[in-house]
Design goal:
Elements: H1 2-32, E1 38-41, E2 49-50, E3 58-69, E4 76-85, E5 91-99, E6 107-111, E7 122-128, E8 136-144, E9 149-151, H2 161-182, H3 187-190, H4 194-197, H5 214-243
Parallel strand pairs: 2-8
Antiparallel strand pairs: 1-3, 3-4, 4-7, 5-6, 5-8, 8-9
């Protein structure tokens, strides 16, 4: 009888432990990837490198790998990290790149926090990291809410100065045409769909002087600058800004 009680107690303890671990893993999975997965920290992976230029206005910290699995699928991986605004200006958007010395694990992404990223504020970012490849994180491009920008000097950057300039000029030319045709009051309503109306030239994505996302970020830069001018001085400031591209 004594052994039966011990066995039942051990079994109950085991069930509670497994249930608690499953609940914790499901909660962690929801926070790092999806509500439909179970996740756990993966200490076996080599920590990623972080390569930032000295004047970069963003700082990457606290990288951590997790593995996850969902019923009926293979095990996957995710890399979480924090991005902090170390500048004294509000960040509108930025482009982060991750690369590896092997063919897998290379990519980049752009993000625009809903309320921007205030000076000193941090946010959590994540990328898929299914392959066990050594990764390095870096920042290619930062755009501030006033329209000023910071660009990486890396030859591998996905956002190059020539691409940024070309995209900004193309967007300004488009908005000048809108303003000339329909009046300056129609400029602001046209901003939300400008990326659909201002297409990059054929081959721009593969132009090494543009960078894959250079033209796109340039179009966005004009949008941000127009919004800033409107906030500071209304339609008159917007018109003055756009006409500066005619000079």
């Amino acid at each position: 009888m004594k052994y039966t009680r011990r066995l039942l107690l051990a079994l109950l303890t085991f069930i509670i432990g497994v249930s608690s671990a499953a609940i914790w893993s499901a909660h962690l999975g929801k926070s790092v990837w999806s509500s439909r997965v179970f996740a756990w920290p993966n200490p076996l992976r080599q920590p990623p490198g972080i390569e930032l230029e000295a004047d970069c206005p963003l700082f990457i910290t606290n990288p951590r790998y997790y593995s996850f699995v969902s019923i009926g699928s293979a095990v996957g991986g995710v890399l979480n990290f924090d991005v902090t605004n170390t500048s004294n200006k509000l960040v509108h958007s930025y482009d982060c790149r991750y690369y590896s010395p092997v063919p897998v694990g290379n990519g980049s992404y752009g993000t625009q926090p809903d309320e921007g990223l205030l000076p000193g504020q941090s946010r959590h970012d994540s990328i898929s990291a299914h392959e066990y490849a050594p990764l390095t994180l870096t920042i290619d491009f930062v755009q501030f809410a006033d329209g000023t920008t910071w660009l990486s000097n890396s030859a591998q950057s996905r956002v190059k100065p020539d691409g940024l300039t070309a995209g900004a000029k193309a967007a300004a030319s488009y908005l000048l045409a809108v303003m000339s045709r329909d009046g300056v009051q129609t400029v602001m309503p046209n901003l939300p769909r400008i990326h659909a109306d201002v297409r990059e030239p054929v081959g721009a994505t593969n132009n090494p002087d543009f960078g894959i996302f250079g033209f796109y970020c340039g179009v966005t830069n004009t949008v941000v600058r127009v919004q800033h001018e409107y906030k500071e001085g209304g339609a008159e400031r917007v018109e003055t800004f756009l006409r500066s591209y005619q000079e």
